Every structure is written in C-alpha cells, then in structure tokens.
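Hi there,

I know you've been waiting on this one. I reran it after we fixed the sequence typo, so this is the corrected version. Both the input and the resulting structure follow.
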Amino acid sequence: MAPTTIKLLYFDARGRAEVSRLVLAAVGQQFEDIRLPREKWATEKANTPFGQLPVLEIDGRRYAQSLAIATYLAREFGLYGTTNEDGLAVDQVIQLSIDLSSSIARTHRERDETKKAELVKKTQEVDVPKFLEFFEKLLHQNGSGYFVGATLTLADIIVYDQLDSLIKRGFVNTEMYPSIQAFIRNVEGNENIKSYLKTRTESDH
C-alpha cells in the first residue's frame, strides 16, 4: 500500500537527505521537507531510531539510514528499473559511487598537512579520473543518457548529486567526459527536478 503521508527530517543542508529529496521531486511526490535547526537537534535526537539523521516518517512510522530511505523511495515510486537485473545494474552504479566517496573521504581524515596535500593530489589526478572513466563507460554502453534503461533511476540521481557537489567544490572536471556531461543535462532536464533545483536551498554540503 502506498504511503499517505511522507515526512523527511534533516538539517537545512543537502547532505545525506538530498538524494531522497531529489527522488521525491523527480516523481512529483508531495512530502513534508522538515529542516531541523541545529540548536534543536539535541532534543530531537532521542526521537530518531538510531540518534542520527535523515529520518523518513511514513504514516507515523520512522525509519533511518540514508541509503535505505532513498532505496525504499526509489522502489516505491518506480525509479529502480523494471526487472531484477535492472535493480542489479542500479545497485552496481550506487556501489561504485560509494567507492568514489570513500576514496575522497580519505583526504578529509588525514591530519598531517603535507601528507594530506599529497593525498588530495593523488585523489584528484588518479583516483577520481578512474571513477569518472567507469561512469563514462557505463553511460556510453547504455546509450540512453542514463545509467540503466532509458529512464531516470536512483543510480542517476545518486551519481548526479555526487558529481554536482564535487564539481561545485572544484574537485571534479567533466570536460573530458562527454557522456557524463550529457547525463548531467538529462537529469537537470527532468521537469520536476528542474523546478526543484530552482528553489533549492544551496549549501556547501
């Protein structure tokens, strides 16, 4: 049974809730986008399943874990392909995106400034291009401008959100990747996403 009321609780930032917001926006699904002020987090924390955000509330029931939330919403509203093999292909891209995030996250954990600079340089010059090549290859092979099938899926939304953030931070340059550039235009060309992006509150994370 489809949910009758959906609430998404997170801070007033893109962060770990943005993919779910984009999924809901893409399908034109009404939901309550609750932006929690940081000063209220201490009191709200006890009302979350695991003491963290985002939280998805469906007809009064609360769930946590950002990827679980996004996956549920994508499956519920038809953004996970039409077959089990489509789902496998979607998951493959999602895991690749997570690997890219893990590679970049290492640069934030390094405390030694000299080592950090070396790690950032290697990540930007070696690791990130490797993943961009993977994305470019998958998009070229599929040939539709999307990662799986001929329509938007969760894989597209996750990679789009990731690349959009990295491009704006100057961490990624897509000039050498025409399929990725076309892919970004396709996602931003979705009328519902386009409308959402026009009114979105921008943040650094």
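Quick highlight: The domain at 6-77 is CATH 3.40.30.10 (Glutaredoxin).

Best,
R. S.
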